[in-house]
């Protein structure tokens, strides 16, 4: 064992023990009020193993704004520091154990996906996703993967769409607790991939519905997407190990759902109830293909 390992190991063990104690206390306190905790518990070294979980983490790591704090966040989430993680439309609320006895409250607000962007995604994916199960398990063609993970036009939030706060004294824009929570979201998407759509205020079934409405012919995309070989390298998805199926929520097969005669452009986007339409500025960084 070299000195670096020696220095690191006790710290990790100490942090894990501290997180465990804080988790037990929070659990007792929550039981009194009937609050249900949803901690992030990782099994093994892998933060996320599904397509959606890995894609979420890959998106975070693509932004230089975050690069400094992410390693600490990874280490924190691995030590079990994320004691509670709740994901709702446009908001992530979490409790994270830190160096003090009292854990920190983290809140991350994420702007909903712009309506026009969602409509474009639905049009681009039309006819290419067979079922909700395939969608949630990430069993997508390389082309669809490229569309949904596109840094400028895909489903994942960009730094300017993310607003984060933490009750710790760290003044950094992204403290290690926030970073841990963001990785925790990646881990959570392994078991509940639909939460990505919840977070962006989207109805994931609409991606399938769009396929049915528009008929079987895929809409040709003019947009540049990530090359297939790059994606398989990034995600390396094991299809056989995909998360559990949801037979109860699977739609009828497209073939018997509707005749594929209707071939018209996607209907104008309708604001969903409770959804506030927001204008989102042009994305920065490479890959900006916004017209
Ligand atoms: Zn913090």
Descriptive tags:
single chain, 291 residues, alpha+beta, 4-stranded antiparallel sheet, 11 helices, 9% strand, elongated, disordered C terminus, binds zinc ion
Helix content: 25-40%
- Measured on Cα atoms, how large is the radius of gyration? 20 Å
Q: What's the story with the biggest beta sheet?
A: 4 strands, antiparallel
Average per-residue pLDDT, rounded, comes to 76
As an assembly, this protein is: single chain
Number of strands: 4
What's the SSE pattern?
HHHEEEHHHEHHHHH
Fraction in beta strands:
5-15%
General description of the model:
The chain has 291 residues and is an alpha+beta fold. The protein has one domain. It is built from 11 helices and 4 strands; from the N terminus they run H-H-H-E-E-E-H-H-H-E-H-H-H-H-H. It has helices spanning 3-33, 51-61, 70-78, 115-125, 132-136, 142-148, 176-191, 194-199, 206-213, 228-235, 254-257, and strands at residues 82-88, 91-96, 104-110, 162-166. The chain has a 4-stranded antiparallel β-sheet. A hairpin with a 2-residue loop joins strand 1 (82-88) and strand 2. Helix 3 packs across helix 7. The longest helix is centred in the first third of the chain and has 31 residues, at 3-33. The termini are far apart. Mean pLDDT is 76; it is low at 214-291. Zinc ion (ZN) is lined by residues 104, 166, 168, 170, 175, 177-178. Zinc ion binds next to helix 7.
């Amino acid at each position: 064992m070299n000195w670096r390992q020696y220095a690191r190991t006790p710290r990790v063990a100490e942090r894990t023990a501290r997180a465990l104690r804080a988790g037990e206390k929070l659990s007792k306190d929550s039981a009194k009020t009937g609050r249900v905790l949803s901690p992030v518990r990782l099994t093994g070294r892998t933060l996320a193993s599904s397509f959606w979980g890995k894609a979420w983490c890959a998106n975070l790591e693509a932004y230089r704004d975050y690069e400094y704090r992410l390693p600490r966040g990874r280490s924190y989430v691995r030590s079990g520091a994320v004691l509670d993680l709740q994901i709702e439309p446009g908001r992530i609320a979490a409790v994270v154990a830190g160096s003090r006895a009292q854990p920190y409250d983290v809140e991350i607000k994420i702007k909903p996906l712009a309506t026009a962007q969602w409509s474009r995604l639905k049009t681009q994916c039309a006819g290419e996703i067979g079922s909700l199960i395939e969608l949630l398990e990430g069993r997508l063609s390389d082309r669809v993967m490229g569309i949904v993970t596109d840094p400028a036009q895909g489903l994942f939030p960009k730094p300017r769409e993310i607003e984060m706060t933490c009750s710790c004294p760290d003044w950094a824009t992204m403290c290690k607790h926030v970073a841990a929570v963001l990785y925790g979201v990646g881990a959570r998407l392994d078991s509940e991939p639909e939460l990505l759509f919840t977070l962006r205020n989207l109805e994931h079934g609409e991606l399938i519905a769009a396929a049915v409405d528009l008929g079987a012919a895929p809409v040709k995309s003019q947009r540049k997407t990530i090359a297939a070989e790059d994606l398989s390298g990034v995600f390396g998805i094991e299809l056989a190990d995909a998360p559990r199926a949801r037979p109860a929520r699977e739609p009828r097969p497209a073939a018997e759902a509707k005749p594929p005669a209707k071939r018209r452009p996607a209907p104008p986007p309708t604001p969903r109830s409770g959804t506030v339409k927001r204008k989102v500025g042009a994305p920065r960084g490479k890959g900006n293909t916004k017209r």
